[in-house]
Amino acid sequence: MATKIEDPRARKVYRFLEMVPGLFSWLTLLGAIFFSWWKPAWASYFIITFVLYWLFRTLYFNIHLATSFRKMQKNLEKDWMKEIEEIGKEANYDWEEITQLVIVPMYKEPLEIVEESFEHLVNSKWPNDKMVVVLATEERAGEEAEYVGKKIKEKYGDEFLKFKVTVHPGDIPGEVAGKGSNETWAAQKAQKMIDEMEIPYEKVIMSSLDADTAVPPHYFSCVTYNYLTVENPTRNSYQPVALFTNNIWEAPPFSRVFAFSSTFWHTMNQERPKKLVTFSSHSMPFKALVDVGFKQTDVVSDDSRIFWQCLFEYDGDYKVKPIYYPVKMDANVASSLWETAVNIYKQQRRWAYGVGEVPYFLYGFTKNKKIPLMRKIRLGFELIESHWSWATSSLIIFMLGWLPLVLGGPEFNQTVLSYSLPRLTSRILTVAMIGLVGSAFTALILLPPRPPDYGRYKYFFMALEWVLLPILMIFFTALPALDAQTRWMFGKYMGFWPTKKVRKN
To answer: pLDDT: is 452 or 149 the higher one?
Structure first.
């Protein structure tokens, strides 16, 4: 945040950069409205161009989604322990030297959710005696978190090489109370354990797993394989695919569609490694985490910020390696439909609040002259364009596309362009919406086994739910993103909002 910068001149520059994403989005939307009245022909051409751009962008993403999905399915079938044993023989590398450090930050998640996550850790194919596990609780969560920590320690404390429950103090000055500050406190405690065991940092892979994360059996062995085979392993983070399917059968229709949409986005991004940034549950070298001084404790979007920290620390020589392997997490489910809708909005606003990385990396790029220019341009364009599209595309396509007809006046409404605009855009959108069929089919494949209290007819209704997507894109994508960008624009900074976890069954 600009308020953290002491130099007045630098603070003004950073403050302007915080305003840039919101200004871009608002100028786009207000410009579409203004030109629909003043120059309706210009606005019409812009809308047609934008819809065509959105169509080709959608086709591009769907191709990547299909490719990533096939790779993920193939990787799920592999015996990754066997793979790392074989490469160990070929490269004369002892994979048994690798230790997995797993940090599970939690707030007020119920015991059954945290317990399920630990069951997956214990049942992992990776040897438990090569895992150091830290359950990171919050002091401000009170007795509820203390109870969960006690129960988890009683049940799983002896299952790993080392196990520790940490309690993050709630009154540390300058911190944002949230996942990042909690995880940094836990990682510093873990560092002491690793030092006591005299394990080199280069031999430790740190995995940050949300409290609801269920890792499939070969997750850690898959990460280790990538760690041992990638060039310069300590200069890469390792990003799995986030599947929001743990409680997908319990989720209401709009939450279910939104969960799968998020899953598809992260699956597709695996095919764009040069533009990939860490998100949510992921793994990284412990050495890199120590080198940058751990995650910053005064930010909301800590999962992406740690990538930028490493990028600047190593002068651009840091990447995110996609591993085409999933981790399973919860869809947004609350006690009522209304509360679920509110929680989805708040969760999306928190994710979109990651637009604060734009001023961070733009300001950092001006300070670090060693990062290659093309790397700066590629990463900068991707981050700015994605947040701009996040806030504007749905509103332009589904709401503002008709404005030239409404505001253009009788003179414009008598032109051929006025007659062609709605027909052309609707045909383009119809072609684009064909992709919903593929999305519905992929979603059905990703579903976990059907609970016995749901009939087979449920599959049919799950496919039909995808007609809700255009509405969801406006209310649960564009509006929360615009909300987050506007807060940055006016300096109304947010704190960390933890998503409430509820399991009905």
So the answer is: 149
Cα separation of the two ends of the chain: 41
Stated pTM of the model = 0.94
What span, in angstroms and rounded, lies between the C-alpha atoms of 241 and 263? 7
Contact present, 51 and 429 (Cβ < 8 Å): yes
Task: State the number of CA atoms in the 13 A half-sphere of 377 facing the CB.
Answer: 3
Q: What Rg value do the Cα atoms of the chain yield, rounded?
A: 24
Rounded Cα distance between 366 and 381, Å, is 15
pLDDT of residue 18: 96
* Residue 497 DSSP class: -
CA angle 31, 35, 39 (to 5 degrees): 160
Q: Which residue has the tokens 């990460």?
A: 223
Instruction: Please name every residue paired with 332 in a beta bridge, in sequence order, or none if there are none.
Output: none
DSSP string of 433-459?
HTHHHHHHHHHHHHPPPPPTTS-THHH
- H-assigned helices in 316-356: 337-352
The stretch 421-428 carries a mean pLDDT of: 82
pLDDT in tens, 221-236: 999 999 999 999 999 9
Segment holding 133, helix H or strand E: strand 131-138
Backbone φ and ψ of 101, nearest 5°: -100, 115
* 198 sits in which H/E element: none
- What per-residue confidence (pLDDT) applies to 445? 86
Give the 3-state DSSP-derived string for 229-256, with helices as H, strands as E and coil as C. HCCCHHHEEEEEEEECCCCCCCCCHHHH
Q: Which residues of 422-445 are buried (b: 16+ CB within 10 A; e: fewer)?
A: eebbeebbeebeebeeebbebbee
d(CA 194, CA 199): 6
Kindly give the residue spans of alpha helices, DSSP state H, lying in 129-244: 143-156, 179-196, 219-229
Edge-to-edge strands of the sheet including 204-208? 162-168, 131-138, 99-105, 204-208, 282-285, 236-243, 319-328
Q: Residue 334 class from Cβ within 10 Å (0-12 exposed, 13-18 middle, 19+ buried)?
A: buried
Flag whether pLDDT at 216 surpasses 90.
Answer: yes
Task: List the Cα angle 179/111/250 in 5-degree steps.
Answer: 90
The span from the CA of 179 to the CA of 299, in Å, is: 9
Q: What is the pLDDT of residues 272-300, one digit of tens each?
A: 998 899 999 999 999 999 999 999 999 99
User: For 5, left (φ over 0), alpha (ψ -120 to 50), or beta?
Assistant: beta
Q: Which amino acid is at 119?
A: E
pLDDT at 502: 80
In percent, the amount of the chain with pLDDT more than 70 equals: 98
